[in-house]
Amino acid sequence: MRKFWKNSNGRLKAGLIITFIFLVIGFIVYLFPHEDPFSKNTYPTKLLPNMEHWLGTTSMGQDVLWLLIEAIHNSLFIGLIVATIGTVVGVFVGLLAGFAGGVLDRVLTVITDTFIVIPSLPILILMTSLMKGSSTVIMMALVLALFAWPWPSRQIRAMSLSLKERGFIDTAWFSGEGTIQVIITEILPFALTWSLSNFMNATLSAIASESSLAVLGLSPGNLVSLGNMINWAMERNAVMAGLWHWIIPPIAATVLLFIGLFLLITGYNDYLTMRRGK
Fold this sequence. Notes:
Radius of gyration: 22 Å
CATH superfamily: MetI-like
Structural class: mainly alpha
CATH topology: MetI-like fold
Strand content: under 5%
Distance between the termini: 19 Å
Mean pLDDT: 87
Low-confidence stretches: none
Number of domains: 1
Helix content: over 70%
Largest sheet: none
Number of strands: 0
CATH class: Mainly Alpha
């Protein structure tokens, strides 16, 4: 870890620090005992920031700080689930299609290309509208994950087509290894570095997608997320009412989270380029 930190560039270090802070807030501070931030009229309404409520309260009597912590937790949770499913499924399908070839490759490629050309936004709008008010974090993540795996699959397939022509693959075949074993033991290690970069990018894309749907009022109404928090503040005219402490925190948190993940992704890619150049 010391060597990694020493060799890391400035963007990677900044991205790691910002992302780590959000992970601590979303998965450690989130566990501290507190009232359900989604419950209304728990506290006096429209309180300005004070010692008891550091970010004040909403017009519905909710503590803005704990509402923000809950939103960060759910947004990160959605992003991590979508990135995990998208990366794992995409890598497996891509490796299998590229390495197996033949009919299986053609079938998997057609399925992958079909999901790529389908416009995801109308489908996401339709599905989230059908679930509105009754969805969970897991269900929202699964909906977004439907469109998170095709591009990784396409890219990994191209990598697999190149790798399977290498001499060490022939050696693995002659040693009696099966298709799945060759994919896992011989080809997958080459894809892991790329997979980590794709995982971080998929996390950012999933959070951005959910936030965009939420700001448009299309995310489940019972889901406390950064996008929904912004949407609720807009619906209740927080700006016109002078409740800046309600709408600024989720906007600032969203921007900082995106910047942190962007710096992490670009910094990590530069780090890999530097490592390959040695």
